[in-house]
User: Fold these one by one.
Assistant:
Number 1:
Amino acid sequence: MQRELRIVSDGSSAPDMLQKCEIIKSVDTTGMACPYPSFESVKAMSLFNNDNNNANECIEIITDSEESAFKSIPSVCQKRSWQFLVLEEVKGLWRIRIKK
């Protein structure tokens, strides 16, 4: 049974699409201090090829760092014009979905 994910921050023009996107890579950064989750986000996003980007594909970063979930990863996304959605799975654990 999958837990209900609650949207807590939205940097997307289509949050429903990002909530249901096909996750092509999931990176678990739990236990990592900031700024390492944002570094991992940039690394994972390098998988996207601009020519072959499926509109329904995204990456997911799992973090237990509030600073990463609400400041550093959204900041990285905004600087690069990436769409993002921060979902809270349980208190203190977030899943950030990102797409170009």
Number 2:
Amino acid sequence: MISRPFLCTMETKWTQIAAISMAIAVALGALGAHTLKDILSPESLASFETGVRYHTIHSLALLLLSGITFHHRRKNLIFSTMFYGMLMFSGSIYLLSTRSLFSIGEQFSILGPVTPIGGLMLISSWLILAFGLKSEALDHP
């Protein structure tokens, strides 16, 4: 029997990143539902849950994206834009909504502009995907 060395392709790494991101989203969702609900204000908890919702949706999208076959550079751009957008959008919401737990007020206020930038990156990733798939179809009739 010939053994082949294990090659970790970029698609495998993307799938791993997406799966780990999904595990983190589930853990943070559970944290919000079982622990933070008794600690945070209703407004802060609602913001935290928004972060979890977008984190979950985009982790699933990354998982699906890792299985789509099209031009490597375009796929890398979409994946990176979506991943970092999700990190900026949801991550800033997590930190901003839980800042009362850390007795840090103004230090986290710098994250305010990070949330919409992350949102714009998420929107951009979906548009790049939409137009990327269209150009792929034109390239391969």
